[in-house]
Amino acid sequence: MLARHYIGESWKHGLLIIGALIVLIPFYMMVSMSLKSQQEIQSISGGLVGAQEIQTFPVCTKHGYTEEVCTMRPYKYNFWFAFKKAPIPRYLMNGLIVTVSIFLIQVLIALPCSYALAKLRFKGREFVFSMVLFCLLIPVHAIALPLYVMLAKAGLVDTYAALIIPWTISVFGIFLMRQFFMTVPDELIDAARMDGMGEYSIVWKVMLPVAIPALLAFAIFSVVAHWNDYFWPRIVITGNRDLFTPPLGIREFRGGIDSDEFGPMMASIVTVTVPLIVAFIIAQKRFVEGITMTGMK
Amino acid sequence: MHYSRAHIWFVWPAIILMIVILILPIFLAGGISFTNYNLGNSSFEWVGMENYEKMFSRKTYTKMIIATATYVLIVVPASVIIGLAAAVMLNSLRFGADIYKTIFFLPVMATLLAMAIAWEFTLHPTLGIINSFLADGCGGIREFILGFHWLPWVGAEDSWYSVACANNMDFPYWLKDKKTAIWTICFIGIWQAFGFNMVLYLAGLTSIPRELYHAAEMDGAHSTWEQFKLVTWPMLGPTTLFVVTITTIRSFQVFDTIEILTKGGPSKTTYVMMYAIFEKAIMQNITSIGAAITVVFIVFIILLTFFQRYVIEKRVHY
């Protein structure tokens, strides 16, 4: 009986390990290429990290640096040259500015609205709620073209505003917070009113602290979605490098297969991908919760 | 419940933004799709159904529908089934489940655009590790397994693997060959999506009461498969419905991998709708056609969600 159990278990591990290896292939490729020299990449040799021989890099000297500066180990060169070639910190900063602004505005709009929908009685409340339910059907990417036309007419293409405006309203956030506030006991709000608090202070001083767990999950959902989003920035940022978000930066850096060197390109991709992945591995449970909470009903 | 005027300031910003950002654009797309408007032109004319007629008569758009449908019909079932299988397996493991879960969830988290570039190199005919792995395996166990020589009806001489080995390592060009490009794109789509489905299924599995399995066992369902059929699968109905809907909507919107890897080619075999909108309206500045595709796209998605919400939902809930 016991032996049979172990056989069953090892079968599953076997399958899962094969699956895990397949899932990890592109990650392996990405990390490996960011560490190795061009020759090792082209000859597919050197395993994960390559030989790491100190050498002089011709592309670097072509860019006008002295031979002394251009002589180092491949992994160091790849990352160093990636930062020299493109303003990566600027891209990361833009990513941060955009995702944080989007999240803050979403909360600013959604929190009072969901509180009103859950706890206040007013004419048209049912109508507003059904409007929220209808809007849940509309993916913003699907209406990207008319949105782009509107923003272009308003002269907002190539601005931070264009990156942020379409995402300021999160009907999903409203829906989520409303469901959450429904579970908050009325007594809590009544007690606050007895203490003489106005509705505004109730929203920000009573409801906000209560909603922290739901907000945290929503924050992860929102930040991950917009940090990784490529389609929308690709449309509204047409050439101004100063506004590039991380995915646009990667796109520019990739001369593709024809680019002169793959190592620095992959190094820049690793740099942009790593912050989220590290955050995910550290706070895994919260991330899974946040990204899949669309599954809550 | 409480009477107050405060709600006006609470609700109106959200209402206005919903109207301007989400509802108005749909009507705008509808309006533009009946004109020959191009962004940058100051004047336009009403052209009636012309854009739609073009869409449904030209070969390009037939290919667009075929590519989109292929992608959705492959990626949705495959990523749902693999997600479910992974969840059921992880749920029954005694140890190690967390590590697999982390690994399988990585593609969901990672910037898809970056991963698309990583896949581009992985699948590259001369630089990629996939084809070099295949080439190294010629004549060995890899050829036996991946060439399907273990199937009785596959001859060891004429399997795809053996033929490639014999023809000077002529392995598929994956993204550059019109026979394989859409399947490769689908594979990357499944790779990216199944971890998300797995996590939702894991959540669904924890909510199934243990007593149901005991009851099933008493009723004579002893094998794992019978218990799965009798208890797990029906109890996961609502989760499946949700997983299928959300995966479908996401698959319809595939863009990043297409733009990086194939640009809709070779010969439009991967010309999916989002990429078509992007190419027509943004790259070629033919706004009106882009708007027509947008309208068809939105109708698809809204019909689909309605179908899920009001037709199937009644049948799945126990």
Mean pLDDT of chain A: 85
* Number of domain modules of chain A: 2
Q: Radius of gyration of chain A over alpha carbons? A: 25 Å
Binned, the helix content of chain A reads over 70%
Query: Which class of the largest domain in chain B in CATH terms?
Result: Mainly Alpha
Uncertain runs of chain A: none
Question: Helical element count of chain B?
Answer: 15
- SS summary, helix count of chain A: 16
What is the CATH topology classification name of the largest domain in chain B? MetI-like fold
The CATH architecture designation of the largest domain in chain B is Orthogonal Bundle
Instruction: Provide the spatial order of strands within the biggest beta sheet of chain A.
Output: 1-2
Task: Give the topology, please.
The complex is a heterodimer of chains A (297) and B (318).
Chain A: H1 2-35, H2 38-42, E1 55-56, H3 58-62, E2 71-72, H4 74-85, H5 88-119, H6 125-135, H7 144-153, H8 160-164, H9 171-182, H10 186-194, H11 199-210, H12 212-228, H13 231-236, H14 246-253, H15 262-282, H16 284-292
Antiparallel strand pairs in A: 1-2
Helix pairs in contact in A: 1-15, 4-15, 5-9, 5-12, 6-9, 10-11, 12-16, 14-15, 15-16
Chain B: H1 6-32, H2 50-57, H3 59-91, H4 97-109, H5 112-122, H6 129-136, H7 141-146, H8 160-166, H9 181-206, H10 210-218, H11 224-235, H12 237-252, H13 256-261, H14 273-283, H15 287-316
Descriptive overview:
- With 297 residues, chain A is mainly α.
- Chain A has 2 domains: 2-85, no CATH class; 88-253, MetI-like fold (Orthogonal Bundle).
- Chain A is 70% helix and 1% strand.
- Chain A has 16 helices and 2 strands.
- Chain A has helices at residues 2-35, 38-42, 58-62, 74-85, 88-119, 125-135, 144-153, 160-164, 171-182, 186-194, 199-210, 212-228, 231-236, 246-253, 262-282, 284-292, and strands at residues 55-56, 71-72.
- Chain A has a two-stranded antiparallel ribbon with strand order 1-2.
- Chain A is globular.
- Chain B has 318 residues and is mainly alpha-helical.
- Helix content of chain B is 70%, strand content 0%.
- Chain B contains 15 helices and no strands.
- Chain B is globular.
- The two termini of chain B are 33 Å apart.
- The relative contact order of chain B is 0.13.
- Chains A and B meet through helix 1, helix 5, helix 6, helix 7 and helix 10 of A and helix 1, helix 3, helix 4, helix 5 and helix 6 of B.
